[in-house]
Design goal:
Blueprint: E1 7-11, H1 25-37, E2 41-45, H2 50-55, E3 65-68, E4 73-76, E5 79-83, H3 88-99, E6 105-110, E7 114-117, H4 123-129, E8 136-139, E9 149-155, H5 161-170
């Protein structure tokens, strides 16, 4: 019995791309052409933002599928398949809880962009975050964002990781 591979899904960080976000583009083009000729789909799966992932594949992103933002945003070629939509009450609740922990540096991730709250994080944090979020904006107040929110991406100091993790688990 002959088996046909219909799909190949790859993670990005530490798997498909090097640490400098490069990969063997000519090899990728050859492999992708071969995959397409036999009806095999290429899927990029990552916790990263869709726009960052898309920028890794200029000229090809409309031919690929993406599972981005830890599964909160799924796009097949040009068609949006799924985008999480956190209710406003949930978003506001998470914002309020995180504000109780000023050591937690938060990125709020939406369909249109990701956001950092001015005054809550430094310019250095914003600049570092831009590596992973190619659409990233400063905002005065997370609660004023008019976007469909997919997830929050908090950065927690290592020495406080356990305490904050326990708090979020137990409410």
């Amino acid at each position: 019995m002959e088996h046909t591979i219909k799909m190949v899904a790859v993670d990005v960080d530490g798997t498909f791309v090097r640490s400098d976000y490069t990969y063997d583009v000519p090899r990728f083009k050859r492999i992708l052409a071969r995959m397409e000729s036999v009806g095999c789909r290429f899927v990029v799966a990552s916790g990263n933002q869709y726009y960052q992932l898309r920028d890794l594949f200029p000229g090809y992103y409309d031919e690929l599928s993406f599972v981005a933002e830890n599964g909160a945003f799924v796009k097949d070629r040009k068609e949006l398949i799924f985008a999480a939509n956190m209710p406003k009450e949930t978003v506001d609740f998470v914002i309020d809880i995180c504000r109780e922990y000023p050591d937690v540096l938060n990125v709020m991730c939406g369909v249109s962009s990701a956001y950092c709250e001015r005054g809550a994080v430094s310019q250095d944090f914003f600049d570092l975050t831009r590596i992973y979020y190619h659409r990233l904006q400063w905002i005065g107040d997370f609660k004023e964002v008019k976007d469909q929110i997919l997830k929050f991406a908090p950065t927690v100091p290592e020495e406080k990781h356990m305490r904050i993790t326990i708090f979020f688990r137990n409410g």
